[in-house]
Amino acid sequence: MSKADIFIRRRIETVAGLLALGLSLLAIRAIDLQWLQKDQLTDLAEKQRYRQFEVVAPRGTITDRNGKILAESIEVPSIAAISEEVPSDRIPELAKTLAIQVGELRQKLKERSGFVWLARQITPDQAQAVMALNIPGVRQETEWRRYNPLGPETGHLIGFVGLDGDGLEGLEHSLNAKLAGEPGIRQVSRDARGHSLPGGTWLREPVPGKPVRLSLDATIQSIAYAALAEGIRSQHAKSGSVAIMRPSDGAVLALANWPGYNPNDFRRYKPGEWRNRAITDVFEPGSTLKPFTVAAALMSGRWHPDSRIYCEKGAMQVADHVIHDDHPEGWLDIPNLLAKSSNIGAAKLALDIGPSKLYDLLGEAGFGQRTHIGISGESPGIVPPLERWGPVETANIAFGQGIAVTPLQLATAFSILANGGELVRPHILADEPADEVRQVIPAAITHQILGMLEYATSADGTGSLAVPVGYRIGGKTGTAQKVDKNGEYTKDRFTAVFAGVAPIDHPKIVMVVVVDEPQESIYGGQVAAPIFRKIAENILPYLGVSPQIENDKVWRATPIAADAGQLPASGSLAGLSLREVRRIAADHGLQLTVHGSGWVVRQSPASINPLREGDRVEVWLHD
Amino acid sequence: MNRLAHKLFWLLPALAIALLAVGQVWLSHLRYETSQASQKLQEEKKSVAADVTQLGLEVASLTRPERLRRIANDKLGMQPPHPMQVVRP
């Protein structure tokens, strides 16, 4: 073999060796890729081929009972950035377009690496201006923003949601689980250019938030809010609430508070201003509790509507405490006790029947416990335990002191009177199934009390300013001293209340008006009653209740009857109204037994002339 | 004849393969176009749904009772009816 042959052979062997080495390396690499890095590379390939993204579920709409939108979510742009990709020299122009300080923007970008929010829920125009700058790393995202078209009018009730879409206050908070829904995850395959291909699959389907329809009526809510605001401004009062319910089924038609706050811009208000006073704040109901004291007395069987009670001419000592009446009274029958709003009369009734009967009735009527209407922050109110009901406490609670209620609780309790004695739990959701109805007070007694409450709104009563022209209503005024930080009653701060039912024959609404710390007048009959009238005269026609001209005539005739107040010469009461008969009986100290309603058609004895003080007269009335 | 048959024996499969290749490219293009159109329609649907929501909100805002009351009182000089003027509510 020549030298040249040997050289060629060596070259062939070298090339063959290099080829063998290369093949070996390829084989090793193939083993590395196919076996050792298989899982990792498969994942990487899947990620390149597939794209997953979160699909936010829209929040459910809140509407009133007529379908009017009270809260709705719409998509709005937000600006985000990948912090390390944003060039430092572009920050000033970005800050200017976002209308924030340059230092603040730099701080946001420095706070963390990767994804960072720069401005959330901004206007489309602003977002467009930012994206037009074409700054690397800056991107536009879409978020849901909640809008409340009625603003402050429904602010306390509806509440608001945070930037992340969670309900933080009001119904948005308490119904969050239903309204929020659940975001979904969708996977789509992509082509070589990164475009999504059809036929994506849901890894998890989004569950849209469910819509919620309330029993609330936006028109009634608006009327109540406006009338309350006007009443509070005219009285230079601190705040106030109105609760309106339909007694037949417990539907809450309005729940207004003043001052209101705008949930679309809730950060401008202090957290204390967000609370729904109609369910969170308690107050002493004052005389508005007397109908329940009377009901307990009538249920005991020891007292009747015509029973008379001596009101001690304005002052009565109970243990070491003296109870006063604003207007000293002598003998009063039960209707006049309510009409004149005698504290002493109510206290005597409660002391006579004993504390347990009144305590039981208050508990049955829902005082001292939450209504469970489904709005967070509801207060149970305060009813002292029975062990603490001594004579003074019993007497005080009988006329609404030493007990605390929410406006909604009081409206619920008055619904019992309007509802033939049946307690219906209040509810705010339109489609909520009705709870079991519970008879709390016998129907016959509630009818008697409604008659008395109508009398309390006559010219003889304290609530005459609550009566809308052309309607017959029943209601009770209340004026309660407020308690200071030391638990002492103040002499210059009061709560004025009116609770009523309209119309009296077939009650469509029960309404409670509470005005906190009025300045021009302190009395419920002068402060809260006119607000009640203003609201009632607007919403009763809206609810399809026509005013009656006959009713108007009756009320116009009332002052004449009141002026008369004389025993007829014949001694006959025929043709007189119950109100006139009561006045005559009270003025002459006669005990009265009444049958029916309307006008007197028969009486016993035939003439009342021979009767003396304390004698009994029986009358039959007919429409 | 034999030569022609021999040529066709090679040509037909080649043509078939070429046709299948062109068909595959065309299908791929069609798929891409359909995907684009579908995405565009989805975007349009989403946009219309958003418009409907926004318009619903605007209607709710424009017809809020407080605003109607203010316009009725201030602009049109209207007042709530007296009770006796309400004949059939």
Walk me through the structure.
The complex is a heterodimer of chains A (623) and B (89). Chain A has 20 helices and 22 strands. With 623 residues, chain A is of the alpha+beta class. Chain B has a domain at 33-74. Chain B has helices at 2-62, 65-75. Chain B is rod-shaped and about 110 Å long. Chain A binds chain B through residues 68-70, 72-75, 147, 149-151, 153, 191, 195-198, 218-219, 222-223, 225-226, 468-471, 537-538, 540-547, 549, 552, and chain B through 31-32, 34-36, 38-39, 50, 53-54, 56-57, 59-61, 63-66, 69, 80-84, 86-89.
Protein traits:
heterodimer, A: 623 residues, alpha+beta, 5-stranded mixed sheet, 5-stranded antiparallel sheet, 20 helices, B: 89 residues, mainly alpha, 2 helices, 0% strand
Secondary structure layout plus pairing:
The complex is a heterodimer of chains A (623) and B (89).
Chain A: H1 3-36, H2 38-49, E1 50-55, E2 62-63, E3 69-82, H3 91-98, H4 102-111, E4 115-119, H5 124-132, E5 138-147, H6 152-158, H7 170-174, H8 176-180, E6 184-189, E7 201-204, E8 212-213, H9 218-235, E9 239-246, E10 251-258, H10 277-280, H11 290-300, E11 308-310, E12 315-318, E13 321-324, E14 331-333, H12 334-340, H13 343-353, H14 355-364, H15 391-398, H16 407-418, E15 422-423, E16 438-439, H17 443-456, E17 474-483, E18 489-502, E19 509-516, H18 524-542, H19 549-564, H20 578-587, E20 591-595, E21 599-604, E22 616-622
Parallel strand pairs in A: 2-8, 20-22
Antiparallel strand pairs in A: 1-6, 2-3, 3-4, 3-5, 6-7, 9-10, 9-19, 11-14, 12-13, 15-16, 17-18, 18-19, 21-22
Helix pairs in contact in A: 3-4, 9-18, 11-13, 11-14, 11-17, 12-17, 13-15
Chain B: H1 2-62, H2 65-75
Structural class of chain A: alpha+beta
**Average predicted local confidence, pLDDT of chain A:** 87
Fraction of residues in helix of chain A: 25-40%
Number of helices of chain A: 20
- CA distance, first residue to last residue of chain B: 101 Å
Specify which chain pair forms the largest interface: A-B, 39 and 29 residues
Number of helices of chain B: 2
Percent in helix of chain B: over 70%
Q: Tell me, briefly, the overall form of chain A.
A: elongated
Radius of gyration of chain A: 37 Å
CA radius of gyration of chain B = 36 Å
Give, in order, the helices and strands of chain B: HH
The multimeric state of the shown protein is heterodimer
Which segments of chain A are poorly predicted (pLDDT under 50) over 5 or more consecutive residues?
552-565
